[in-house]
Specification:
about 170 residues; alpha/beta; 3-stranded parallel β-sheet; two-stranded antiparallel sheet; 7 helices; about 15% strand
Length: about 170
């Protein structure tokens, strides 16, 4: 709520200062379609802290405005696990699609022939080296050319960083 921290603002092309829990009430939906009013509503990929408050209300606001909302479940958090669990259930019931960070990354890439595939895979290995046993490329998987083998535990911080890094690589090279 309020201004974004300078460390966040300097890494973003644009930020939104907000006072409502639902960022749509502070102009998010308009900002997303700015310059493209006649275009179909875009798909929005969303993740963040306090999944049961700001993330939930913003996702519900986007859904109400006709956006397709993808919530990166393993890059979301709440102080209490029960709050996150119920928020994810409510979002699914409201029409949001729950996805994982790895799903988003490899859907953006679409193929191992994408020019950003190897840099993203290297970032994946580096970002998760402390928590992942291995990252493998295989032809045995049908839906994804890569597989993350992780230890038990919460990896949401690592996955959120990974999503940001993958988006930066795809934006720069794609």
């Amino acid at each position: 709520l309020g201004q974004n921290a300078p460390q966040v603002r300097e890494r973003c092309d644009a930020t939104l200062s907000k006072m409502h829990f639902d960022a749509c009430e502070d102009g998010l939906a308009e900002a997303l379609i700015e310059g493209h009013p006649a275009a179909p509503r875009p798909e929005v990929v969303i993740a963040g802290c306090e999944a049961h408050v700001c993330l939930l209300q913003t996702a519900l606001g986007l859904l109400a405005r006709g956006f397709e909302v993808r919530v990166v479940e393993n890059a979301c958090g709440s102080r209490r696990a029960s709050d996150k669990r119920v928020a994810m259930q409510r979002l699914r019931q409201a029409g949001a699609t729950l996805v994982t960070a790895e799903m988003v990354i490899f859907e953006w890439l679409a193929t191992c022939e994408h020019p950003a595939f190897k840099p993203v895979l290297e970032r994946l290995k580096e970002a998760l080296k402390e928590r992942a046993k291995d990252v493998r490329v295989t032809t045995r998987l049908v839906d994804s050319p890569a597989c993350l083998v992780a230890e038990e535990g919460d990896m949401s911080g690592h996955l959120a960083r990974l999503l940001k890094q993958a988006a930066q690589i795809l934006h720069a090279g794609g």
